Amino acid sequence: MFMGEYRHNIDTKGRLIVPAKYREHLGESFVITRGLDRCLFGYPFSEWKSIEEKLKALPLTKKDARAFTRFFFSGAVECELDKQGRVNLPSSLLDYAKLEKECVILGVSNRFEIWSKDIWEDYFSTSEESFAEIAENMIDFNI
Question: 2-137 in CATH: which number?
Fold first, then answer.
């Protein structure tokens, strides 16, 4: 399970440190792809396989299903960590998420997300007031 918030910088070669607590859940290789809200999603292969099966089950005749599947899979790359615990992000993903230097890495249950610091702070500050309302409209559970 991924949780927590970490801040790291991307170096000039596009490498980003993956938090040590996440590395133990990722295995030898994992997948990073375009996420929603201009961030990147990272998945261990076991979780990626589960998502792949769900997306393969979507009807090919539905335009939205085709569009999302293209978006999600075309941005996907298999990644490995180097000896310093860094992942090398391709320029296409750096451009999509507007990652330049300062990044925020979030654990979100079955995945981790990589955000530009500025985009994350803007998202969080504009959404913060509505989190209680969002929680109220979701599945009924006690926190």
Answer: 3.40.1550.20
